[in-house]
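ok trying this again, last paste got cut off
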Amino acid sequence: MTTLKIDFVSDISCPWCVIGLKSLEQALARTEGVVSADLHFQPFELNPNMVPEGQDIGEHLAQKYGASEAQSAQTREMIRARGAEFGFRFDMDKRSRIYNTFDAHRLLHWAEEQGRQRELKLALFETYFSKGQSPGSHEVLARVAGEVGLDPAEAARILASDAYAAEVREREQFYQRQGINSVPAIIINDRHLISGGQPPEVFEQALRQIASQSAAANAVKGA
């Protein structure tokens, strides 16, 4: 079995990141026994200058993308349907605002050190997209941390400080320098980039091909 390092660059407020992650996980399930994933979630802020109280989502999409209400409704339905294919519920009626996600990324950085990053990432996606709660709220973030087995008091202490702020900014800047300007961006073994919420078949084919190349290269080195 070949272990592949996978850096999943994404934002909490990105619906296509949910779809991309669910699709990747399905591909990893299909390649079980062939591929083992060393998965790391890397920070990216779609709206780094978003005010703490957030912004109405319709207003935000109109300002940022020039999207009409009809276009936005069509996109929401596409996202809802894609999510449903993977068993994820996008409740568009509850998600009425876009929020600042920097503190959520700080907490995810800490969660990686605690071995709970994937659990927290998935829980934050559900908190925002299924329940409509703010990923910018310290109270919400600390509660969700506790729900996935992290210490909520420690989470609250981290959020009240500037812990991990420098580390998160450094990682954000690193991926920006690598040319990542949209998410999800999935980088395998620091070399192979897959962009967007691709179908599981696309991820599966890439995983098998890269694992085969990696195994062949290791065999040559060991010869």
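PB: full thing came through this time. The radius of gyration is 18 Å.
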